[in-house]
Design brief:
The protein has about 180 residues and is α+β, with helices and mostly antiparallel strands. About 30% of the residues lie in helices and about 15% in strands. It folds into 3 domains: about 1-40; about 40-125, Immunoglobulin-like, CATH 2.60.40; about 125-184, no CATH class. The chain has helices at about 5-10, 20-35, 135-150, 155-170; strands spanning about 40-45, 50-55, 65-70, 75, 85, 90-95. Strands 1-2-6-5 form a 4-stranded antiparallel β-sheet, with no helix packed on it. A two-stranded antiparallel sheet has the order 3-4.
């Protein structure tokens, strides 16, 4: 076995040079794409939904199909799809339950026995703050503010809140010595 055998001598990703990381990522993307291309369906996702598309055999009519979606299975058999198009494609849109929470998630696959995708490399599409619900919008605005504050070397909103709490406590207890107090 040679010392250049990448299967046995590949170093951890964070120890690779930028060029090695780019090559590693290129190979991983190509492998992932080949695995996804081999599936009998195609799929896309955003943080709220996953959409599965299946190309149907020529001449297939909606009434010829049976689509069964359960918690742990998705079946497509030849008699009523959720939505079909004139181009011979069945579209099945799946709502992510995590979309209803404050931490929506990317799915690594549609069916757990199929190849996974690297969700760490996914980024949400750009959206307007006005498109977001109130809680999510507030969280995003806070993150944007905190990021801007950090870039300017100023305290984040949490640090400001802690400082204000300490100041209120100091004002309420002037008899105490706060000269060595640290906010942390």
């Amino acid at each position: 076995m040679s010392t250049n055998d990448s299967a046995t001598t590949e170093k951890p990703y964070d120890e690779m040079s930028k060029q090695e990381q780019e090559e590693h990522d290129r190979i991983a993307r190509a492998k992932e794409q080949a695995e996804q291309d081999a599936l009998p369906y195609k799929w896309t996702q955003d943080l709220n939904t996953a959409t599965v598309t299946v190309t149907l055999p020529a001449g297939t009519r909606a009434r010829d199909l049976i689509v069964s979606i359960k918690k742990k299975s998705l079946k497509l058999m030849h008699a009523i799809p959720f939505q079909t198009s004139d181009d011979g494609v069945l579209y099945v849109e799946l709502e992510k339950l995590s979309a209803r929470t404050s931490s929506p998630q990317w799915w690594p696959h549609i069916l757990t026995h199929h190849p996974r995708i690297d969700t760490a490399k996914l980024a949400p599409e750009n959206s307007k703050l006005s498109d977001l619900d109130g809680e999510t919008r507030g969280m995003v605005e806070k993150m944007m503010f905190d990021n801007q504050q950090k870039q300017m070397g100023k305290p984040t909103s949490d640090e400001q809140r802690k400082f204000e709490m300490l100041e209120k406590f100091k004002n309420a207890h002037p008899e105490m010595d706060f000269s060595n107090a640290k906010i942390g």
